[in-house]
Amino acid sequence: MSYYAVLLPLVDQEKSNLVRPAHLEFLDGMKQAGHVSAFGRFTDGSGGLVIFNAETYEDCEALVQKDPYVESGARNYEIHEWGLLWADLKSDS
Fold this sequence. Notes:
3 helices; 29% strand; 35% helix
C-alpha cells in the first residue's frame, strides 16, 4: 500500500459550495473503506488536501476521479506519491 497526497485546488467557488456535502460524504465513505488517511482544507480558501491509500498511482487516480469536486469541475487535482514518515515525538529534554 502506498500513500498519495492529493491537492484539490479550487477552480469554481460556486460549484464547490454546491457539491461540498457530497464531497464530504464521499470522503467519509473512502475513509470507512480504508482508502483515505486524512483530509482537510487550506485556510486561505485555495483548496484542500486528501491523503489516499492505494496500491498504485492509477488506483489512486481512479478514486480521485470519483470525488464530486472533481466530477463537477469545482476542483482540479494533483497527485503526488508520498513517502510517509511518522514523527518521533520523544523529547531529549
